[in-house]
Amino acid sequence: MSGHSKWSTIKRKKGETDSARGAVFTKVAKDIMQAVKQGGADPESNSRLRDVISKAKSSNMPNDNINRAIKKAAGAGEGDDYEEIIYEGYGAGGVAVLVRTLTNNRNRTAGDVRHLFDKHGGNMGVAGSVSFLFQQKGTIVIDSEEFAEEETVMMDALDAGAEDFTSEEGYYEIVTSPQDYYTVKDALEAKGYTFVDSNLGPVPITWTEVTDPAATESLEKMLEKMEENDDIQEVYNNWNN
Questions:
Q1: Which helix (H) or strand (E) holds 226?
Q2: For 115, phi and psi rounded to 5 degrees?
Q3: Quick check: is 127 in a domain?
Q4: Domains in the chain: how many in total?
Q5: Which of 2, 116, 206, 238 is buried most deeply by CB count within 10 Å?
């Protein structure tokens, strides 16, 4: 079956230093707080919060950090609010990029994102300039070393309602419709599966090949710097690397 996303970003994150992991924890904590404000502090009734907690645990975020973020959001005032903004643009080589941010200062964040595009051979566009190249899907990633029976994992995923299943080196990728994402995830968890990562968000409809070494280097640097930015939560792209 055909794949829908690339795992290079997550593989990079797995090799991060302790300081970089701390930055990841900060981003996840912001997502937890946002989920609590939007749907309440009970993960049983707040599927978004349940999903973010799952992601936090897959990043080895301590339970104390998770609970602290939930409590802080539950008791926070309006001054602690973050605004979610999606920025769109093209990186070097014509790669489409979506940047999801959570910010308490949209002017600062817009300037930072524009600077990162410009500095590394890309350009930031207006809303809608690249989003048409993506579609909303659920993506669930399972470690194939931990769950070695590929056919069993595939059948369990498809029986749970998954749209697609891909086996790559070191992992399985399961793709769902947005409506079935939580259903499939819950069904797999009930069967004892754990996830390296899971996400409900944009995946590319088409991919862009980049053959120029200079463009490749610029893309890698831009994506790396975007991941390091405190206001940027997720970066989605259609680079076929």
A1: helix 213-228
A2: -60, -40
A3: yes
A4: 3
A5: 116
